[in-house]
Queue: 2 jobs
Job 1
Amino acid sequence: MFSKLTSTAWCLRKPMNSHRCFSLSQHLWRDKSVIYNASKRPDPVLDDEFRKKIHEGFKHPRGLAIVEPSKEFTKNVINCFDKALASQKDHIQDYVSSGEKLEAFIKHRKVPLERSEVKARRNKIEDMIKEEFSIEHIDKVDKPDKAVIKKLKSLEKSHLCKWTPIDFDEIGSLTYLVTRAAAEFASLRNVFGQIKEKDPAFQPRTFFDFGSGVASGLWAARDIFGRLNEAFLVDHSKHMNDLARLILGGGDDLQVPAGISFRLQTPSSVNLTYDLVLCSNTLLELPTAEDRLTTLHNLWARVEQDGYLVLVETGTNAGFHVIAEARDYLNQLSRLSDDDDGLHVGHVVAPCPHDAACPRHSQDTIPCNFPVRYRNFDIPDLVPRQERDLVKTDLISYVVYKKSNREAASQPRMVEAPVRAKGNIYCRLCTNMGTLQEVLVRKKDDEDLFQLTKRMKWGDELPVSLKEWADKPKVGTPWMKYAKNQN
């Protein structure tokens, strides 16, 4: 099936050249007034075009949309279980149970350690053992001390990240389909929807997916952009490719639509370029930073001019780390690129409104992630009704990069849920200046902006510009103000 690993701590109390530590606990070592510069809140000014839009009757949707797999995707999955996978119907509940373990494992994965880091940690552990047992050498072969070896193994188990890629066989692929494919579809549909909203004229005709799995990315791209002329899907698992081909053919792998190709490995040549390139939940399957950045460089070279590269990972510490790593690398490529060739010039489209260093990665202690709500496949007789009706929430970290120069400043984005108080709403934003900033929206100052912000949520762009902060003299109680004016 898929490999099962034990999740272990990966940071020593005294870090040794390790990755920056993040926590999913929103209260661990966080002073939001400092992180979001709450002492110097600039005044938000609603965009004039958006104000006009509001006066014409626009209502921002409340709450996060619940995404379900498209009707065609669901229909094809049902056809697969009615035809080629009919013998697997009786095992669906077993796959669902295994999928819960798979999901827990995925959300507790760590970034694989570099060889130098592993060596440094081993040396540190051995130094700790030598100091504790007052010995100069740890004998592991001739006359090993049982107490020393036991302690050594215990420390190695708790401080060395035992990482391995997930290898999906036939059963593992089916498990992924019935438990994780809907979540991946919802995540990618939301991200592609942002591209469509920001660039309505963008209509991709060619699509490249590295780590395609059961082709959730292709189904999501079709749902947002319509028909694609060519799709090139790469996944190292033969069983994932076979299942994706079967679903696309509606239960017959010989009926795959024209223009769709499958490969186990990425072609070495980058002569062909694509309008939309995707890498979803795959970067953590690569063993080293060198492999991740080499793959990223290869994917960026495949993006057509004015095309998009989309990277998505689970919204965990590890997922955010590899997304931040990839974003930083693409920013460096863009800055170092010659203006003449323009090969690597690009900019971040979402979620970041800027191309500066990520302030969340350098200043905060939690990952930058965004919620996605979804339902599983509506498959009669296969998934219990309560399971099909259940609305789940996933957190994702992602970046969308466009191969072109930035033409206009982007709007600030809410990186936390807004905090509502009577007549006031506190918004924590990532701004186009590359900073984290808290702003206060007051009902008495701008009724339109206040009513709009009431309907906005974590992950939305706030259509405002921020005035430069100016220190305002504090005035005491009204009667003190009156007395001051009288004098």
Job 2
Amino acid sequence: MSQDHKLSIKQLYTYFKEALKGEENNFTTGSIRKAIFMLSIPMILEMLMESIFAIVDIAFVSQVSTNAVATIGLTESVVTLVYAVAIGVSMAATAMVARRIGEKDPDGASKVAVQAIFLGVFIASIVSVIGIIYPKEILGLMGGEPELI
């Protein structure tokens, strides 16, 4: 890699601060490395916060019993599966909106975004109904012992 394409720590820190500000950026022009880095920061922080949430959850529940900790482990597994579906839908929606933005079609991008929101609400409704009707069966499929469920 040539010297021109390497990012310094100072540049990375500047990009990091810029990504946290949440200001509008045009990623259709300029460095693809910068765009990927800045778009990845919110995703990395979200996953970090989810992990911290799970750790804090387990820390508090561990004061109750070991079965409670095992139950938290099972439910985190189910939540991870739901996140996988949500991330897949999110990636598809992001790609479609990005394509419309790249085509300089903001109206098309807004229509795609609205459709993605409706799709997300629809999927969330189905997952919620299944979770409400079959919670014990889902935890059983995840390997939960009957005394945990």
